[in-house]
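Why show two proteins at once? Because comparison is the fastest way to build intuition. When a single record is shown, students tend to memorize it. When two are placed side by side, the eye starts asking what differs. So, the first record is below.
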Amino acid sequence: MSAGTAELVADERELLRRLVPLAGARVADIGCGDAALSRRLLAPGMAASVAALEVDRAQHAKNLAAPPVAGLAFHFAPADALPFADASFEAALMLKSLHHVPVARMDAALAEVARVLVPGGLLYVSEPVFAGPFNEVMRVFHDEEAVRAAALEALRRAAARGALEVVEERHFDAPVAFRDFDDFAARMMQVTHTALAPDAATVAEARRRFEAHLGPGGARFVRPMRVNLMRRPAR
């Protein structure tokens, strides 16, 4: 399903709620970033607890410094070495994080996720699709075509070896907006989780592509996304 024909999802939490039974669940948010979603998952009637994991030391420090939230615990740990006992969670989330796992460790990461899920527990993996106008700006300085393809192949291998079962694959479109190029650069180029150091020519080309979409209200894009919903076999 291509951009423009998929469901438009402005708040992915709502899609997550439709696909994953979260009420009272123990949830692992693997690659939690700023943990905004982790916090929102603890709203009344939703998850009982969230273990939010991050490998970006700068972001992890910010998360620890933020006001505490009941039920939310932060962990500094990679996806292929989860610091939890077997069958610790009813659900695990990887939102735009699987492709950040080193390719050689993706299989081990998915095996770890399967280990810490209860039998029948669900893994929700959300990844950007390598397509669309927003991607054409991003790829100038951060081409993720190979790692995103590797992430999808790792999910397929996990299913083939029986570590996880395929429940559903779904595509949706996510709106993304920026005030101007400086806003874009701050949010997408000046990140701590990935070492990006584009030269002047690269920045200039990214600016040129970005500003082709700039209007009086800023630049608005629709980013194609894919969700792979997987389950630990109930055996």
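Second record. Ask yourself what differs from the first in the token line.
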Amino acid sequence: MSQFELLRFERVGAVAHVQINRPEKRNALSDPLIAEIKQCMLEMPSDVGAIVIDGVGDHFSAGLDLSELRERTTAEGMYHSLSWHDAFHQVQFGRVPVISVLRGAVIGGGLELAASTHIRIAEPSAYYALPEGQRGLFVGGSGSVRIPRLIGFARMTDMMLTGRVYDAQEGQDIGLTQYLVDAGKGIEKAMALAERIAQNAPLTNYAVMHVLPRIASQPMAEGLIMESMIAAISSGDPEAKSRLAAFMEKRAAKVTRD
């Protein structure tokens, strides 16, 4: 792994813990930080089975670092947006699942980054906003694609037009997060889930990350044939055969309610 200036990186067994490290800026996302996120995902060690990402301090990310804004040509603005798309694509469509732990501000680009992760865990301090409309801007980090898939087009429209802010409970209720935990418990929950995910068959994890969202955006007929193909590929994998044999021989635990 490269040495990062704006990220912290730690290994805990098969789990990588990545932290945005700009607490003095509420972990605002600068272009160098975006580049480091992309590089971190691309260089992730091959024996990592899951990733947990959060922010150092009280906030996940307050979004775009407005102090870095400058006049750009139309072409420069496009390239800037595409660089964010590229980084967040590596988060969503990288090699292993990513869990985000959300505290404090999850605003603008911070919400776009969170939306690119596969599982989102909130603590009670988390709050969500898309203030681009009040800044004379438009989302540029893939938010218009990813966020409506979580909360719906109408809710995102409301957030951008009115500046509406959702608190942690509201974010859980509308689907921004899958888990809401007590204060200070986010990392503990994320690490437990990541360790469980890392024990799954790698091919299944990869299919859930890469194929499931694409099936969801396809017409039914195309989605069903793709599902059949991936199901056949997965079940034919030696790892699947070994795990099924262990279950049939009562060497694997049955599903129970925790």
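One difference worth noting in the second protein: The radius of gyration is 19 Å.
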